[in-house]
Amino acid sequence: KLFFTDYGNAAKVERCDMDGMNRTWIVHSKIEQPTALALDLINKYVYWVDVYLDSVEVVDYQGRKRHTIIQGRQIRDLHGLAVFENYLYAVNSDNLSILQINRYNGTDVQALAKLDNAKEIRVYQKRIQTAVRSHACEVDPYGMPGGCSHICLLSSNYKARTCRCRTGFILGSDGKSCK
Asked: Maximum Cα–Cα distance for the chain, whole Å?
């Protein structure tokens, strides 16, 4: 799945398959300007920052179990968001610090470091790297991902895929080759 935020005409948090199909709103009310998003891949939760409401909130992948982690001026101007173990990490662009926020107890907020300039944060740790199983976009014997001549996108599950073409090409009738 692909998760993303949008604060155009109607602010929302959405998800879709990697090929863009099955687009679903998971949050579309009481939301103004969602700018950062992080996933808890183990427990299947979506966290986001709303810079207009000065809040960090969470829902499950279906948009249920919504609640506010923290709200108020102390988290104003957050950009970037990452989740690891019991904490959320974000960049506060107002004072250029990295914040650590306990995701179960929003009153536990600590500034960890000062930065010259940052807008994004990522946590890389071996334990949070999911094991990859065999999937529909694996390279075939001819070196083509999923048998697609240009781009292979996973679809509704890891066994299904959709082929796409680079700009200037169109997908052939076989659904795999680009012309």
From this structure: 57
- Cβ atoms within 10 Å, residue 178: 16
Summarize pLDDT for 37-52 with one digit per residue, the tens.
999 988 999 999 999 9
Check residue 32 and report its DSSP letter. S
DSSP classification of residue 103: S
The 3-state DSSP class for residue 22 equals coil
> How far apart are the C-alpha atoms of 96 and 3, rounded to whole Å?
26
**Domains present along the chain, CATH in parentheses:** 2-125 (2.120.10.30), 132-178 (2.10.25.10)
Q: What is the model's pTM? A: 0.83
Given a contact cutoff of 8 angstroms between Cβ atoms, the answer to whether 139 and 4 are in contact is: no
* Cβ–Cβ under 8 Å, residues 54 and 76: yes
68/167 Cα distance (integer angstroms)? 41
